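Closing statement on the zinc ion sub-project.
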Amino acid sequence: MNNPGIFSNPCAFCKQREAERLCDYITDYHRTPIFFRDYRMFKESNEKGNDSSCDLPLCKMCSNHINGADLCPYHYDLYKQAKDIPQHLRKYQHRERKRLIEGDKLNES
Ligand SMILES: [Zn+2]
Ligand SMILES: [Zn+2]
């Protein structure tokens, strides 16, 4: 039963179960707006997924499901650290997010 040899694609972490998904953590960003004629092209390129992701094979048990993405245990730890920015920087983050939301509203109308 627990022979990893029976899996064609074993999970990279436990090696006990078949991998069903890949880690979606972005390890490198390929977003260079300078090469795009306009914002629409830039946006489409991002949506088509030009970024490099970790892509380690994961089983259901080893993957951490975060807002529609699957993260391997290694990147889940990083994700938790990266999310918690120091308190004194958060007010700038909130200010920019507010500006982005207000900017979107202006563009829509
Ligand atoms: Zn696993
Ligand atoms: Zn990963």
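The pocket of zinc ion (ligand 2) is lined by residues 23, 25, 54, 56, 72, 74-75 (CB under 6 Å). With this model delivered, the sub-project is considered complete and its resources will be redirected to Aim 3.
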